[in-house]
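Q: Could you fold this chain for me?
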Amino acid sequence: MAKKQDGNPYIIIFALWLLVFAASSQVMVISPILPRISEQLGTPLEILGNLVTVYAVMVGVFAIIMGPLSDKIGRRKILLIGTGGITISLFLHGLVDTFWGLMVVRALAGMAGGVLSGAAVAYVGDYFPYEKRGWANGWIMSGIAMGQILGIPLGTLLADVSGFRIPFVLFGGIMGLTFILTYLKVPQPNVELSTDKITFKGAFNKYLKLLERSDVRAVALAYVVMFLSVSVYVVYLPTWLEETFGVSGTAIASLFFVGGIANVITGPIAGRISDRIGRKSIIIISCLGLSFIMLITTYVITDFWIAYIIFFATMVLIAMRISPFQALSTQLIKSDNRGSLMSLLVAIGQVGYGVGGSVAGPFYVESGYVSNTFIGTIMILVMAYIVWKHVPEPELKQTKQ
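A: Sure. Below is the predicted structure, expressed as structure tokens.
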């Protein structure tokens, strides 16, 4: 029988939602404001993708480091460390005046983001029963959608008016509020914690033991190609639209607003449906649909208004797979190793995102945005195959929400 959990689940969902909103907004805002960063820091466009890479690499490294620690001391303490760290690092963005200075503070934000990433998803796995994790993840991950609806448009407009630094400071303030709410209202879940001594060798062996499992390897590889496909497709999409159709930052902001609406509608619905019918089929359908959208992007967007339709469909399909895939992943392992698993998956996923950010710029400059869409298409089809062929579907027990 599951242990009774302390705290109000709805307040907990809101706290984690606010965390996801601020954390995702400060990541996603990079893409639409790349032209502003290039102008204000005098930086060549093709190297700006490294801002994505340095963040992703640091997220990956620190997710790996903090995974075993979160299994030892609990998710709540890790969430407090992460929200506090990212608050400070985002405020430091307001002080940078060179590209390399921006690289440093993005690295600091990535360190704190790495602390947060695995623990936030693992907290859902610890606190909510498997039959409700799709529902919980759906609402929490809708924070990403609200980031697109409110955070990214607002951040893009602020960058146009007041400079690229201001959006990061804004999201730092919101993350500070998240720290306070987490401290006051988010309890440590009543789950078994690891009793292992934390050592470098012990943590390394723990990850190796996880990767000995074929289901973990399959999910890890799926994370890599999922993040790579999104990164290589999305990072330079706003830049391509600006250069092709001569639109403003305001127009790009409105595009993310429309995409956010798609996300906020789809996420909770997909989560609840996956609680009833299973996760794999929804994930695979999402991947196949997204591969088609990516492939046709540059051919069908002959006028900027068509980009709204394409981006809306893209966000629907991305949102379809997020909460089901996370819910499925959390069930692969027991609570005393769940933080390590989720941190491993986040780290590996960030490798994919970082690689995508690094290759997106050179491909865009040398071969045009069509090359970005082609790479994204191939990678998302690879993910669909991995999930279909090699990822198991945990058994669902039907309960009332």
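A (continued): The mean pLDDT is 83.
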